[in-house]
Write the structure tokens for this entry.
Amino acid sequence: MVSKSRKVWMLGLVFILVLLTACGSAGSNDNQANGSNTSAEGQQEQNDSNTNEPVSEEELTSEVNIYTARHYDVDAELYAQFTEETGIQVNVIEGKAPELIERLKREGESSPADLFITVDGGILHTAKAEGVLQPVVSDVVDAQVPAELRDTDSHWIGLSTRARVIAYAKDRVNPEELSTYEDLASDKWKGRLLVRSSSNLYNQSLMASLIALNGEEATEQWAAGIAANLARDPEGGDRDQAKAIVAGVGDVAIMNTYYVGHMSVSDDAEEVKVAEQIGVFFPNQDSTGTHVNISGAGLTKHAPNKAAAVKLIEYLTAKEAQEKFSSVNFEYPVNPDAEWPELLQSWGTFNKQSVDFAAYSEYNPKTVEISNKVGWK
């Protein structure tokens, strides 16, 4: 028989155990509500951490990795200056743009790449469409680069532009004879026109812009006229077209302005002479404007060094770097505060086409189809 005192002691013990169990249960519930990502609040915190907020200086890493299809000495010089000023090492892998895009897709989340850099607005749009880029969030970039030279969703940012113009023999062609891209398909230029292959991306993007502006039927007629007016079968690059003008093979050529700049400061004395003997004409100034293409940088979808990569884009689009792009490589700066070098100033300002760069990608297959159809090799 249990004594009265022992009964009281046992009842007290049970009461204490009940209290302890209740406290433990409450603590467990508190932990689940406040500390677990399966709760509503925890899930919101996880979602918030994945939003594309501007990166902070504290997030900066010691390196940034670039996959690039640009192969210019000035790029390497700017990367070195960036490293010297920030201490952030820039690592570069070069390749052709389509191959780099496929590499980014294949590597997925394990990719070491932070930035994808290339020439051509169509390629930049393709990279966005393939899902290998993410938006760049930076008030600095937005202030330095006009909206028309950035992707509408900020998946890529323009670094420089280049104009595709009509180069002409100063001793044989009066610039008053020149007017538009469309006019180059007229009979007066038969046997006088030079241009590189239709398979070249610069020509494909030019044709894509004409499809966007004039339609497929008109562009096909234009391409047929170009093919009929060629002074020779397409060969070589833009520099070769300029050299052929001076050699008397043809009188006019379609080419990018920055090649004229390169030749003007070349170590090859013959190239310098070529640059001196050709003029630069900006077509379509009274209509749709001169065709312009773009170089740009995109932040990769899984960039492991996001803050450093954004800082590099900010650096490359700042006034100083933009002026170096232009003075060394003779490209047009995207930052309106950057001063043009003397040669570009001597050619004057010009009206540009108003065509979405995405059209270069959208109509690219049609340009190939048209060129094959009309016999533009």
Notes: Residues 1-51 have pLDDT under 50 and may be disordered. The first strand starts at residue 63 and ends at 68. The CA atoms of residues 285 and 351 lie 6 Å apart. The chain has two domains: 59-161+292-340, 162-291+352-374.
